[in-house]
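step 3/5: co-fold with guanine
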Amino acid sequence: MQIIHADIVYSENSKQLAVHRDSYVAVEGGRVKYIWSEVPEEYSSVPVTDHGSDVLIPAFSDLHVHAPQYPNRGFGTDLLLEDWLEQITFPMEARYADPEFAKLAYDAFVDHLIAEGTMHACVYGTVHTEATSYLIERMDKKGIKGFAGKIGMDRSAREDLLESPEKALRETEAFLEKYSGNRNTKPILTPRFAPTCTGELINGLGRLGKKYNTGMQTHLVESLWEAEQARLLFPECSCDIEIYERAGLMDNGPVIGGHFIFPSEDDIHIMQKYDCYAAHCPDATVSVIAGIMPAGALLDRGIRIGLGTDISAGHHVGVYTQVGRAVQLSKLKNFYEPDGNNTISFPEAFWMATKQSGQLFGDTGSLEPGAVFDALVIKDLSDAAVKLTPEQKVERFCYAGTKEDIAARYMDGEEIPDGTDD
Ligand code: GUN
Ligand code: FE
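step 4/5: write C-alpha coordinates
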Protein backbone atom coordinates (compact mmCIF):
# COMPACT_ATOMS: atom_id res chain seq x y z
CA MET A 1 0.00 0.00 0.00
CA GLN A 2 1.04 3.60 -0.55
CA ILE A 3 -0.48 6.73 0.93
CA ILE A 4 -0.59 10.11 -0.79
CA HIS A 5 -1.44 13.39 0.88
CA ALA A 6 -2.98 16.37 -0.98
CA ASP A 7 -6.30 18.10 -1.50
CA ILE A 8 -8.41 15.50 -3.33
CA VAL A 9 -11.07 16.40 -5.90
CA TYR A 10 -13.13 14.20 -8.21
CA SER A 11 -16.68 14.06 -9.51
CA GLU A 12 -19.28 12.80 -7.08
CA ASN A 13 -21.86 12.89 -9.86
CA SER A 14 -22.58 15.00 -12.93
CA LYS A 15 -23.37 18.12 -10.91
CA GLN A 16 -21.18 17.86 -7.84
CA LEU A 17 -17.52 17.56 -7.03
CA ALA A 18 -16.35 15.38 -4.15
CA VAL A 19 -13.83 17.45 -2.18
CA HIS A 20 -11.47 16.12 0.49
CA ARG A 21 -9.31 18.99 1.64
CA ASP A 22 -5.95 18.15 3.23
CA SER A 23 -6.61 14.40 3.03
CA TYR A 24 -4.96 11.07 2.35
CA VAL A 25 -5.62 8.53 -0.36
CA ALA A 26 -4.51 4.95 0.23
CA VAL A 27 -3.72 3.02 -2.96
CA GLU A 28 -3.38 -0.74 -3.15
CA GLY A 29 -3.11 -3.01 -6.18
CA GLY A 30 -3.36 0.01 -8.49
CA ARG A 31 -6.72 1.10 -7.10
CA VAL A 32 -7.98 3.56 -4.53
CA LYS A 33 -8.64 1.73 -1.31
CA TYR A 34 -9.48 4.47 1.20
CA ILE A 35 -9.69 8.23 1.54
CA TRP A 36 -8.98 9.53 5.05
CA SER A 37 -8.73 12.94 6.68
CA GLU A 38 -6.17 11.38 9.10
CA VAL A 39 -4.11 8.24 8.61
CA PRO A 40 -5.50 5.61 11.01
CA GLU A 41 -3.11 4.32 13.64
CA GLU A 42 -2.88 0.83 12.11
CA TYR A 43 -1.44 2.31 8.86
CA SER A 44 1.02 4.66 10.57
CA SER A 45 4.01 2.66 9.35
CA VAL A 46 3.06 3.08 5.65
CA PRO A 47 5.16 5.84 4.05
CA VAL A 48 3.28 8.95 2.96
CA THR A 49 4.05 10.92 -0.22
CA ASP A 50 3.19 14.48 0.70
CA HIS A 51 1.99 16.83 -2.04
CA GLY A 52 1.17 19.59 0.45
CA SER A 53 -1.55 21.92 -0.78
CA ASP A 54 -1.41 20.61 -4.35
CA VAL A 55 -4.55 18.93 -5.60
CA LEU A 56 -5.01 15.33 -6.67
CA ILE A 57 -7.52 14.72 -9.48
CA PRO A 58 -8.31 11.82 -11.83
CA ALA A 59 -6.36 11.69 -15.10
CA PHE A 60 -8.28 12.88 -18.15
CA SER A 61 -9.91 11.03 -21.04
CA ASP A 62 -9.80 12.30 -24.64
CA LEU A 63 -12.70 10.78 -26.57
CA HIS A 64 -11.70 12.07 -29.99
CA VAL A 65 -8.20 12.73 -31.24
CA HIS A 66 -6.41 12.21 -34.57
CA ALA A 67 -2.85 11.08 -33.84
CA PRO A 68 -1.59 11.63 -37.43
CA GLN A 69 -2.73 15.25 -37.34
CA TYR A 70 -0.50 16.00 -34.35
CA PRO A 71 2.18 17.72 -36.50
CA ASN A 72 -0.56 20.03 -37.88
CA ARG A 73 -1.79 21.32 -34.52
CA GLY A 74 -2.09 25.07 -34.28
CA PHE A 75 -2.30 26.01 -37.92
CA GLY A 76 -4.66 25.86 -40.86
CA THR A 77 -7.73 26.25 -38.71
CA ASP A 78 -8.93 29.41 -40.40
CA LEU A 79 -10.37 27.07 -43.06
CA LEU A 80 -13.68 25.24 -42.83
CA LEU A 81 -14.07 21.47 -42.72
CA GLU A 82 -14.17 20.54 -46.41
CA ASP A 83 -11.25 22.78 -47.44
CA TRP A 84 -9.35 22.01 -44.26
CA LEU A 85 -9.56 18.26 -44.94
CA GLU A 86 -8.34 18.69 -48.50
CA GLN A 87 -5.67 21.32 -47.98
CA ILE A 88 -4.31 20.66 -44.50
CA THR A 89 -5.32 17.25 -43.22
CA PHE A 90 -5.18 14.81 -46.11
CA PRO A 91 -1.70 15.92 -47.26
CA MET A 92 -0.40 15.29 -43.73
CA GLU A 93 -2.18 11.94 -43.41
CA ALA A 94 -0.68 10.83 -46.73
CA ARG A 95 2.79 11.11 -45.17
CA TYR A 96 2.04 8.15 -42.90
CA ALA A 97 2.68 5.84 -45.84
CA ASP A 98 6.27 6.25 -44.64
CA PRO A 99 6.76 4.15 -41.48
CA GLU A 100 9.79 6.16 -40.38
CA PHE A 101 7.80 9.39 -40.48
CA ALA A 102 4.96 7.69 -38.59
CA LYS A 103 7.29 6.49 -35.86
CA LEU A 104 8.74 9.96 -35.27
CA ALA A 105 5.35 11.62 -35.19
CA TYR A 106 3.58 8.97 -33.10
CA ASP A 107 6.31 8.77 -30.47
CA ALA A 108 5.97 12.52 -29.93
CA PHE A 109 2.17 12.35 -29.93
CA VAL A 110 1.93 9.63 -27.30
CA ASP A 111 4.49 11.33 -25.06
CA HIS A 112 2.62 14.60 -25.36
CA LEU A 113 -0.70 13.00 -24.40
CA ILE A 114 0.78 11.71 -21.17
CA ALA A 115 2.57 14.98 -20.49
CA GLU A 116 -0.78 16.77 -20.69
CA GLY A 117 -2.40 14.35 -18.24
CA THR A 118 -4.39 12.28 -20.74
CA MET A 119 -4.21 8.58 -19.85
CA HIS A 120 -7.32 7.33 -21.65
CA ALA A 121 -8.11 8.05 -25.27
CA CYS A 122 -10.07 7.15 -28.40
CA VAL A 123 -7.57 7.70 -31.19
CA TYR A 124 -7.86 7.79 -34.98
CA GLY A 125 -4.93 6.62 -37.11
CA THR A 126 -4.82 6.76 -40.89
CA VAL A 127 -5.63 4.20 -43.59
CA HIS A 128 -2.05 2.94 -43.36
CA THR A 129 -1.93 -0.39 -41.56
CA GLU A 130 1.77 -0.36 -40.75
CA ALA A 131 1.72 3.15 -39.28
CA THR A 132 -1.47 2.51 -37.33
CA SER A 133 0.00 -0.72 -35.98
CA TYR A 134 2.95 1.25 -34.66
CA LEU A 135 0.55 3.75 -33.07
CA ILE A 136 -1.50 1.14 -31.20
CA GLU A 137 1.63 -0.70 -30.08
CA ARG A 138 3.15 2.51 -28.76
CA MET A 139 -0.01 3.54 -26.92
CA ASP A 140 -0.36 0.09 -25.41
CA LYS A 141 3.26 0.02 -24.32
CA LYS A 142 2.95 3.42 -22.66
CA GLY A 143 -0.11 2.22 -20.74
CA ILE A 144 -2.76 4.37 -22.41
CA LYS A 145 -6.14 2.77 -21.83
CA GLY A 146 -8.39 3.13 -24.79
CA PHE A 147 -8.89 2.51 -28.43
CA ALA A 148 -7.05 3.15 -31.68
CA GLY A 149 -8.40 2.58 -35.15
CA LYS A 150 -7.18 2.21 -38.70
CA ILE A 151 -9.30 4.69 -40.59
CA GLY A 152 -11.68 3.34 -43.21
CA MET A 153 -12.25 5.50 -46.29
CA ASP A 154 -12.85 4.39 -49.84
CA ARG A 155 -14.23 7.42 -51.70
CA SER A 156 -14.09 11.19 -52.13
CA ALA A 157 -10.53 11.87 -51.06
CA ARG A 158 -7.13 11.99 -52.75
CA GLU A 159 -6.15 8.73 -54.42
CA ASP A 160 -3.28 7.88 -52.10
CA LEU A 161 -5.61 7.83 -49.08
CA LEU A 162 -8.22 5.58 -50.61
CA GLU A 163 -8.32 1.81 -50.38
CA SER A 164 -10.64 -0.58 -52.13
CA PRO A 165 -13.26 -1.87 -49.70
CA GLU A 166 -11.75 -5.38 -50.07
CA LYS A 167 -8.29 -4.23 -49.04
CA ALA A 168 -9.64 -2.03 -46.25
CA LEU A 169 -11.64 -4.91 -44.79
CA ARG A 170 -8.84 -7.45 -45.16
CA GLU A 171 -6.33 -5.20 -43.43
CA THR A 172 -8.78 -4.08 -40.77
CA GLU A 173 -9.48 -7.71 -39.96
CA ALA A 174 -5.77 -8.45 -39.62
CA PHE A 175 -5.47 -5.40 -37.33
CA LEU A 176 -8.30 -6.69 -35.14
CA GLU A 177 -6.81 -10.19 -35.05
CA LYS A 178 -3.43 -8.89 -34.00
CA TYR A 179 -4.41 -6.34 -31.36
CA SER A 180 -7.74 -7.38 -29.82
CA GLY A 181 -5.81 -9.06 -27.00
CA ASN A 182 -3.89 -5.90 -26.10
CA ARG A 183 -3.71 -5.08 -22.43
CA ASN A 184 -4.35 -1.35 -22.58
CA THR A 185 -5.13 -0.05 -26.06
CA LYS A 186 -7.65 -2.06 -28.08
CA PRO A 187 -8.60 -1.74 -31.72
CA ILE A 188 -11.81 0.04 -32.71
CA LEU A 189 -13.55 0.24 -36.08
CA THR A 190 -13.08 3.70 -37.54
CA PRO A 191 -15.07 4.56 -40.67
CA ARG A 192 -14.00 8.18 -41.13
CA PHE A 193 -17.46 9.61 -41.85
CA ALA A 194 -20.30 9.11 -44.30
CA PRO A 195 -18.91 11.31 -47.12
CA THR A 196 -15.75 9.19 -47.52
CA CYS A 197 -17.20 5.69 -46.98
CA THR A 198 -19.25 3.50 -49.29
CA GLY A 199 -22.04 1.28 -48.04
CA GLU A 200 -19.93 -1.72 -49.00
CA LEU A 201 -17.15 -0.63 -46.64
CA ILE A 202 -19.48 0.29 -43.78
CA ASN A 203 -21.43 -2.96 -44.07
CA GLY A 204 -18.19 -4.94 -44.14
CA LEU A 205 -17.00 -3.15 -41.01
CA GLY A 206 -20.31 -4.09 -39.42
CA ARG A 207 -19.59 -7.77 -40.11
CA LEU A 208 -16.12 -7.41 -38.57
CA GLY A 209 -17.59 -5.64 -35.55
CA LYS A 210 -19.86 -8.58 -34.93
CA LYS A 211 -17.16 -11.18 -35.50
CA TYR A 212 -14.60 -9.52 -33.23
CA ASN A 213 -17.01 -7.86 -30.81
CA THR A 214 -15.51 -4.46 -31.57
CA GLY A 215 -17.03 -1.01 -31.18
CA MET A 216 -16.85 1.98 -33.48
CA GLN A 217 -15.82 5.60 -33.62
CA THR A 218 -16.76 8.02 -36.38
CA HIS A 219 -17.78 11.63 -37.03
CA LEU A 220 -21.51 12.19 -36.67
CA VAL A 221 -23.62 15.13 -37.86
CA GLU A 222 -20.62 17.34 -37.42
CA SER A 223 -21.65 19.99 -39.93
CA LEU A 224 -24.67 20.80 -42.06
CA TRP A 225 -22.62 19.86 -45.13
CA GLU A 226 -21.74 16.47 -43.64
CA ALA A 227 -25.33 15.76 -42.55
CA GLU A 228 -26.56 16.64 -46.04
CA GLN A 229 -23.93 14.42 -47.68
CA ALA A 230 -25.02 11.55 -45.44
CA ARG A 231 -28.60 11.96 -46.59
CA LEU A 232 -27.62 12.22 -50.27
CA LEU A 233 -25.21 9.28 -50.24
CA PHE A 234 -27.37 7.01 -48.09
CA PRO A 235 -30.94 7.96 -49.12
CA GLU A 236 -32.32 4.79 -47.54
CA CYS A 237 -31.36 6.13 -44.09
CA SER A 238 -33.38 8.76 -42.28
CA CYS A 239 -30.36 10.17 -40.47
CA ASP A 240 -26.57 9.97 -40.22
CA ILE A 241 -26.38 7.37 -37.44
CA GLU A 242 -28.84 5.04 -39.10
CA ILE A 243 -26.10 4.31 -41.67
CA TYR A 244 -24.07 2.64 -38.93
CA GLU A 245 -27.05 1.14 -37.14
CA ARG A 246 -28.19 -0.64 -40.31
CA ALA A 247 -24.68 -2.01 -40.78
CA GLY A 248 -24.78 -3.56 -37.31
CA LEU A 249 -21.99 -1.33 -36.04
CA MET A 250 -23.81 -0.30 -32.87
CA ASP A 251 -24.23 -3.75 -31.36
CA ASN A 252 -20.72 -4.85 -30.53
CA GLY A 253 -18.98 -2.48 -28.18
CA PRO A 254 -18.65 1.17 -27.34
CA VAL A 255 -19.75 3.68 -29.97
CA ILE A 256 -18.25 7.15 -29.90
CA GLY A 257 -19.65 9.75 -32.26
CA GLY A 258 -17.44 12.78 -32.79
CA HIS A 259 -19.08 16.20 -32.58
CA PHE A 260 -22.83 15.47 -32.83
CA ILE A 261 -23.60 19.12 -33.47
CA PHE A 262 -26.65 19.00 -35.70
CA PRO A 263 -28.52 15.87 -34.59
CA SER A 264 -32.03 15.16 -35.80
CA GLU A 265 -34.58 13.57 -33.47
CA ASP A 266 -33.80 10.24 -35.17
CA ASP A 267 -30.08 10.64 -34.48
CA ILE A 268 -30.82 11.34 -30.82
CA HIS A 269 -33.10 8.31 -30.48
CA ILE A 270 -30.48 5.99 -31.93
CA MET A 271 -27.80 7.44 -29.64
CA GLN A 272 -30.10 6.86 -26.66
CA LYS A 273 -31.04 3.36 -27.75
CA TYR A 274 -27.42 2.16 -27.85
CA ASP A 275 -26.06 4.29 -25.00
CA CYS A 276 -23.50 5.84 -27.33
CA TYR A 277 -21.04 8.54 -26.36
CA ALA A 278 -20.94 11.87 -28.12
CA ALA A 279 -17.48 13.44 -28.15
CA HIS A 280 -17.74 17.18 -27.64
CA CYS A 281 -14.65 18.90 -29.06
CA PRO A 282 -15.08 22.61 -28.29
CA ASP A 283 -11.93 24.03 -29.93
CA ALA A 284 -12.47 22.01 -33.10
CA THR A 285 -16.03 23.10 -33.44
CA VAL A 286 -15.21 26.78 -33.16
CA SER A 287 -12.34 26.33 -35.62
CA VAL A 288 -13.00 24.12 -38.65
CA ILE A 289 -16.60 23.17 -37.99
CA ALA A 290 -18.13 26.44 -36.82
CA GLY A 291 -21.05 24.91 -34.99
CA ILE A 292 -21.86 24.49 -31.32
CA MET A 293 -23.03 21.21 -29.85
CA PRO A 294 -26.28 21.59 -27.90
CA ALA A 295 -24.51 19.98 -24.93
CA GLY A 296 -26.92 21.18 -22.25
CA ALA A 297 -29.97 19.97 -24.18
CA LEU A 298 -28.33 16.61 -24.95
CA LEU A 299 -27.35 16.07 -21.31
CA ASP A 300 -30.95 16.80 -20.33
CA ARG A 301 -31.97 13.97 -22.66
CA GLY A 302 -29.55 11.52 -21.13
CA ILE A 303 -26.97 11.42 -23.91
CA ARG A 304 -23.52 10.51 -22.62
CA ILE A 305 -21.06 13.24 -23.52
CA GLY A 306 -17.29 13.17 -23.11
CA LEU A 307 -14.75 15.72 -24.26
CA GLY A 308 -12.24 15.49 -27.08
CA THR A 309 -9.38 17.62 -28.34
CA ASP A 310 -9.88 16.57 -31.98
CA ILE A 311 -6.28 17.40 -32.77
CA SER A 312 -5.73 19.06 -35.23
CA ALA A 313 -9.12 20.64 -35.86
CA GLY A 314 -8.60 21.48 -32.20
CA HIS A 315 -5.15 22.80 -31.39
CA HIS A 316 -4.37 21.94 -27.75
CA VAL A 317 -3.37 18.41 -26.70
CA GLY A 318 -4.61 18.84 -23.11
CA VAL A 319 -8.25 17.82 -22.65
CA TYR A 320 -8.38 19.95 -19.52
CA THR A 321 -8.37 23.04 -21.75
CA GLN A 322 -11.61 21.81 -23.26
CA VAL A 323 -13.36 21.69 -19.89
CA GLY A 324 -13.52 25.47 -19.56
CA ARG A 325 -14.19 25.83 -23.28
CA ALA A 326 -17.23 23.52 -23.01
CA VAL A 327 -18.69 25.79 -20.35
CA GLN A 328 -18.00 28.88 -22.48
CA LEU A 329 -19.62 27.35 -25.56
CA SER A 330 -22.73 26.32 -23.65
CA LYS A 331 -23.10 29.96 -22.61
CA LEU A 332 -22.81 31.14 -26.20
CA LYS A 333 -25.32 28.53 -27.34
CA ASN A 334 -27.69 29.63 -24.61
CA PHE A 335 -27.20 33.31 -25.50
CA TYR A 336 -27.98 32.88 -29.19
CA GLU A 337 -30.52 30.04 -28.88
CA PRO A 338 -31.90 30.16 -25.34
CA ASP A 339 -34.72 27.71 -26.04
CA GLY A 340 -33.88 24.41 -24.34
CA ASN A 341 -30.15 25.06 -24.31
CA ASN A 342 -29.28 25.15 -20.63
CA THR A 343 -25.74 26.17 -19.84
CA ILE A 344 -23.47 23.64 -18.21
CA SER A 345 -21.49 24.19 -15.04
CA PHE A 346 -17.79 23.66 -14.41
CA PRO A 347 -18.45 20.48 -12.38
CA GLU A 348 -20.50 19.08 -15.28
CA ALA A 349 -17.77 19.77 -17.82
CA PHE A 350 -15.10 18.30 -15.51
CA TRP A 351 -17.28 15.21 -15.01
CA MET A 352 -17.53 14.80 -18.80
CA ALA A 353 -13.74 14.77 -19.11
CA THR A 354 -13.19 12.40 -16.17
CA LYS A 355 -15.84 10.25 -14.53
CA GLN A 356 -18.39 10.14 -17.34
CA SER A 357 -15.93 9.24 -20.08
CA GLY A 358 -13.77 7.16 -17.73
CA GLN A 359 -16.48 4.50 -17.74
CA LEU A 360 -15.44 3.68 -21.30
CA PHE A 361 -12.03 2.55 -20.08
CA GLY A 362 -12.87 0.49 -16.99
CA ASP A 363 -13.19 1.98 -13.52
CA THR A 364 -11.24 5.12 -14.36
CA GLY A 365 -11.94 8.84 -14.18
CA SER A 366 -12.65 8.96 -10.45
CA LEU A 367 -10.78 8.70 -7.16
CA GLU A 368 -13.56 7.06 -5.20
CA PRO A 369 -12.61 3.83 -3.43
CA GLY A 370 -12.38 1.02 -6.00
CA ALA A 371 -11.36 3.29 -8.88
CA VAL A 372 -8.20 2.58 -10.87
CA PHE A 373 -5.62 5.05 -9.61
CA ASP A 374 -4.84 7.01 -12.79
CA ALA A 375 -4.31 10.43 -11.30
CA LEU A 376 -2.62 13.81 -11.58
CA VAL A 377 -1.20 16.10 -8.95
CA ILE A 378 -1.90 19.70 -9.95
CA LYS A 379 0.20 22.44 -8.40
CA ASP A 380 -1.55 24.78 -6.01
CA LEU A 381 -2.15 27.76 -8.30
CA SER A 382 -3.24 30.06 -5.46
CA ASP A 383 -2.00 33.65 -5.40
CA ALA A 384 0.03 34.85 -2.45
CA ALA A 385 -2.79 37.23 -1.59
CA VAL A 386 -5.70 34.83 -2.11
CA LYS A 387 -5.74 31.15 -1.27
CA LEU A 388 -7.93 29.01 -3.48
CA THR A 389 -10.32 26.30 -2.34
CA PRO A 390 -9.56 22.82 -3.72
CA GLU A 391 -12.38 23.21 -6.30
CA GLN A 392 -11.01 26.58 -7.40
CA LYS A 393 -7.52 25.11 -7.82
CA VAL A 394 -8.94 22.57 -10.27
CA GLU A 395 -11.01 25.15 -12.11
CA ARG A 396 -8.07 27.54 -12.45
CA PHE A 397 -5.92 24.72 -13.82
CA CYS A 398 -8.52 23.83 -16.45
CA TYR A 399 -8.85 27.45 -17.55
CA ALA A 400 -5.35 28.83 -17.09
CA GLY A 401 -2.99 25.92 -16.38
CA THR A 402 -0.35 24.24 -18.51
CA LYS A 403 1.29 20.83 -18.42
CA GLU A 404 4.07 22.40 -16.33
CA ASP A 405 1.46 22.73 -13.58
CA ILE A 406 1.14 18.95 -13.40
CA ALA A 407 3.49 18.07 -10.55
CA ALA A 408 3.09 14.28 -10.71
CA ARG A 409 1.33 11.59 -12.71
CA TYR A 410 0.16 8.19 -11.44
CA MET A 411 -0.91 5.39 -13.76
CA ASP A 412 -2.35 2.15 -12.35
CA GLY A 413 -1.08 3.28 -8.95
CA GLU A 414 2.53 3.86 -10.01
CA GLU A 415 4.13 7.25 -10.41
CA ILE A 416 5.23 7.70 -14.03
CA PRO A 417 7.49 10.21 -15.71
CA ASP A 418 6.06 13.12 -17.67
CA GLY A 419 5.79 11.03 -20.82
CA THR A 420 9.15 11.64 -22.37
CA ASP A 421 10.92 8.55 -20.98
CA ASP A 422 10.86 5.12 -22.59
N1 GUN B 1 -14.48 14.70 -40.53
C1 GUN B 1 -13.87 13.78 -41.27
N2 GUN B 1 -12.58 13.70 -41.01
C2 GUN B 1 -12.36 14.59 -40.05
C3 GUN B 1 -11.19 14.96 -39.33
O1 GUN B 1 -10.08 14.46 -39.55
N3 GUN B 1 -11.37 15.92 -38.39
C4 GUN B 1 -12.57 16.50 -38.14
N4 GUN B 1 -12.66 17.41 -37.19
N5 GUN B 1 -13.67 16.18 -38.80
C5 GUN B 1 -13.54 15.23 -39.74
FE1 FE C 1 -12.19 14.47 -35.80
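step 5/5: annotate
The mean pLDDT is 97.
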